[in-house]
Amino acid sequence: MDYGHEIEFGVFITPTNAPAEQPVRLAQLAERLGYDLATFQDHPYQPAFLDTWTLLSYLGAATERIRLAPNVANLPLRQPAVLARSAASLDLLTGGRFELGLGSGGFWDAIAAMGGERLTPGQGVDALAEAIAIIRGIWDTTERGGLRLDGEHHRVAGAKRGPRPAHRLPIHIGAYKPRMLRLTGRLGDGWLPSLGYLQPGDLARGNAAIDAAAEKAGRDLREVKRLLNIGGAFRDVAGGPLQGPPSQWERELTELALEDGMSTFIVMADDPALMQRFIEEVAPAVRAAVAAERGERGTEPAGSLPAAALRLRSEALDYASIPASLTATAVEPGSWEYPELQNTYLRGGAPGVVLRPTSAAQVGEALAWAREQGAGERVPLSIRSAGHGISGRSTNDGGIVIELSALDRIDVVDASRRLVRIGAGATWGRVATVLDEHGWAISSGDYRGVGVGGLATAGGVGFLGREHGLTIDHIEAVEVVLADGSLVRASRDERPELYWGMRGAGGNLGVAVAFEMVARPVGEIGFAQLAFDASETADFLERFGAVTEASDRIVTPFLLLGGDRPRQPRIAQAMIAVDASDPESIVGHLQAFAAIAPLVGQQVVRSSYAGVIDNAPGGAHRGQGEPTTRSVLIGSITPEVARALARFLDAGAHYFFQIRAMGGAIADVPADATAFAHRDAKFSVIAFGADRTRLDAAWDTLVAPHATGLYLSFETDQRPGRLEDAFPPATLARLRALKAEVDPDNLFRDNFNIAPAPSLIE
Questions:
Q1: Closest CA to 171 of 117, 134, 122
Q2: Which of 339, 578, 648, 695 has the greatest number of C-beta atoms within 10 Å?
Q3: pTM passes above 0.85
């Protein structure tokens, strides 16, 4: 039975501590020689050995390419929850080079002497099954809540999950007896016996038992890789198994691969000469012989995804036709990386595939393939820079996501002009950190995880906005991949109409891959968090608006209110950035705000701009369902507007409400200079709700009548009319004409879609 797995070769090294450097040198030699895997037996009770886990950790730093594994870890002396964290940590630190071999235990007298529980063979199998459930549960950070398992031998009571390994970390099981073989078929990623412990026919019987158990569990038989520890010696004359010239080794290992399904041969060798001869004279010949025979037989290679994952594929997509340049980084449902990429910050998604191009040319290839699959018509297409957008349109269900995180370079183009080139896949937190080294900043989102591409094509109402303008006002040029796959540059002098449209409606026009932007000198700034008793809500909001408008441009406040708490006063929190470093100046600019209403809390610090937006933990997005938000742009917070906003808050349809200050430098830019045309707005208002109907009813009645515009990045209402709210008639007509030119087939439509003007499509 040949399962079609790739033929690989490893070494089994004794972790001797006399001299302690020997196993390290042998592992490094194995890496230089080209071995795929270095493994080490694990006997914590053996004083002549190094501790295997310590050795593996050391080797993680002392090697660069070779994979590492215990062969096999002594489970009775390694608590499974801790073992899970240790394995995941080592996998992360080595960039996905770790594999976990597990055994049920042996040498029980020695184990008991070390404090381990003495188990019968049957108990050992049960304990191993419990341990695997715990280990995989710790690794599965997609599940919410703590991990609980009340086993006979291993227990966890709400253990926190994580860290998540860097890759689908395989568990290889050392198994010989029927119950262990069945467990391997149900739960294992690999079978790892030693040839010296086997009798003739044991491999066939073991494979049959594993396959029967795997099939019963609904698994593809090829999901269990077959590894084999082997030992032997090179001799001039053929003798017993693996006792002879390289040609004998080649013949016997080829037979083990083609007839018994073994695919990874781990040679037990502490002899450098044997290691070198094996990898140079035997390994290439075995690979060639197996490849030739598989070619004649038509053996299908084992896939990288389990059978259950393949069933999650979208029927609308032809996965086999994904361009070769994109297949290595493409992420499909069921793959290890998929849970980290399927959702956005607020929205849950289940895309059919996530394509991760590493260049503008690959973005063009991704778009070409998307068009072939029917994107823009029957297949959703989403573009993602970081997935933080409130609208959540950078994911979908069953369609294609083009994810740009690899396009994240940040380069200084001209220091004298503070001109920087920023990849669309970078995050604003990283941009702020890089620019801070030069004493510069670009006003951006209020959170470090916001992606450059999404914000810099929509607007960017940030903490330095009243002084520096919107994020789009810093843009000198944009590199854009259009719907036809061509890469163009848009600036004042090159494709000026596209340059105009990309600054405010870019998500409808193409895929921005890089921006040239001018930073501003920014040193330490003041950042205040003031908490107010806002029980007199209308009066408070009116005062907040008036103080904000009267403030110097170097002051940009944001105001937050959560849902009301029973029998508690309404609290409003202001976050205020002051672009000044002198403490007296900072406090002076804050005095008027502090007098708006009774303060119930306050904190003022000096920080870099990077420190201000470094305000939340990172990690994968865990959005669920559809976010429910509404957004408007408004002018002054007049008494009438303040009363309307207060009545909205009293309606209780929200759980989060925010007012962001605009005006100042934002209003200095002419309304027709960018596709973001509502330059006269002084505030952006947004609310989150749990119930779409309740939020819309309260918003439409109380807030929307006072709107002067709409910022689409904060909006999730898909009813007609939102485009007309976001873009004045002349702006929208101009955008539709531009859309007809650059995207006549309306490929980029899975958003607040600006349809191309029909009369202008050839």
A1: 134
A2: 578
A3: yes
